[in-house]
Amino acid sequence: MTLSFDPKDVSLPIGHFIGDRLVSAKGAIQMHRPSDGQAYADCPVADSDIVDQAVQTAKNALKSSNWDGIRPRERLRLLHRWADLIEQDAVNLAQLEAVSSTRPVGQLVDGDIAVSIEQIRFFAEFADKESSALVPTDDGSLGMIMSEPYGVVGAITPWNFPINMAAWKLGPALAAGNAVVLKPSEMTPFSSIRLAELALQAGLPAGLINVVLGDGMTTGNAITSHPDIAKVSFTGSTRAGSAIMENIARSGIKPMTLELGGKSPQVVFADADLDRAAAAITASIISNAGQACVAGSRLIVENSCVEPLVEAILRGMADIKPRFTWDAASQYSPIISERQRQRIADIVRRTVAAGAECLTGGDFMDAPGYFYAPTLLAGVDEDSPAVIDEVFGPVLTIQTFEDEEEAMTLADHPSYGLAAGLFTRDLSRAIRLTRRLQAGTVWVNRYGRSRDHILPTGGYKQSGIGKDLGREAFQSNRKSKSVLISL
């Protein structure tokens, strides 16, 4: 069986999913396929009335289903059943994802979708294992810390890994006993709608998952400012995260989890396995064409090994072939939009104008759609646009150092602290520098997340607040209440 398909043959679920049905709505945002630039659908925009309808539906569903009050094992069973149906529907989901997003269909079934299934099953297991606690007090009293769901969680996900990001939000929120109003990106909404349909088929109460489509200014603001949204979870840019914080502060205080931008360093010492380091570094900036918040976009390498490492990276960037995302042979992603591709090109142009040398790439690729060539920039400094700005594209900069102190100085970005890579065979150095790196995640002798979902992800500085994944993600979807009883 081949995963290749004709995008014209895919039936798109266009509308808002509220309660137990797809609510038809007229489109307002013209959507373009990143692979060929063709307009193919219009995405509707949910206004405050539609968002309110979704929120009220979620509230009613919590009350009528007693979702948090049923046996925890029943919540677990239903979430596992949902994961089973996602697995059975993986090819259909992959096609929905590949049509609209930057994700090649060949990387979805065994990649993004399989990982999403694992994450839902991972969080399902918390339903009957995390609970309230008795705490030590004196003999005359009984102390408890009770754990409760928030109620309705508002979740906003980005376009770069649509189904995976939806699983990040839905899995822990539902396992923790909440309902969710989810807004996927207006550029990549279809797999999220299908997830909601499959949840209903699995037996989850209607209204626990509601998906509203639209942009950030209208739909996103309506979600984050809604008085009955008890908690907000967002993954996206730092700029958008700041706007969400402002909107929440203006409309009322509520907890939030924000996983935001990054400008992650990859620090390589001369004693590292350079072939292994080069492979990891190249993969991190080529994967999804660098459109990932954790993309390792700043190479910081010891002077004595810069030449062989750069040569290996250049070999890894050579012969990249642009293909349609619906072609099973595709291994390289387009940029999400022409606007974003132009932004990448402008950052590269300004960096070169400031004195950088473009060793490869630096231009559009000769193909339909919004492809940008893998790009390697040498001769940059700490003020170069490609070093300071989150490019969100396949652009890697090179800086060099003489000793550990200089390496740590270069690695410490003034704004971001999401992730970092460290390549060395010296265990003492690895532990010592891991403690110094200002990042929420540090990978040593590798770069990128594994399928160990117990490890949380989140950033320092302007890279975010709170954590996704891990035990922390489940706990962040519940609130605590202290109880003291006199005996």
TrEMBL record:
InterPro entries: Ald_DH/histidinol_DH, Ald_DH_C, Ald_DH_CS_GLU, Ald_DH_N, Aldehyde_DH_dom. GO terms for molecular function: aldehyde dehydrogenase [NAD(P)+] activity. Transmembrane segments: none annotated. Keywords: Oxidoreductase, Plasmid. Residues 27-483 form the Aldehyde dehydrogenase domain. PROSITE patterns: ALDEHYDE_DEHYDR_GLU. The active site is at E259. Belongs to the aldehyde dehydrogenase family. This is Aldehyde dehydrogenase family protein.
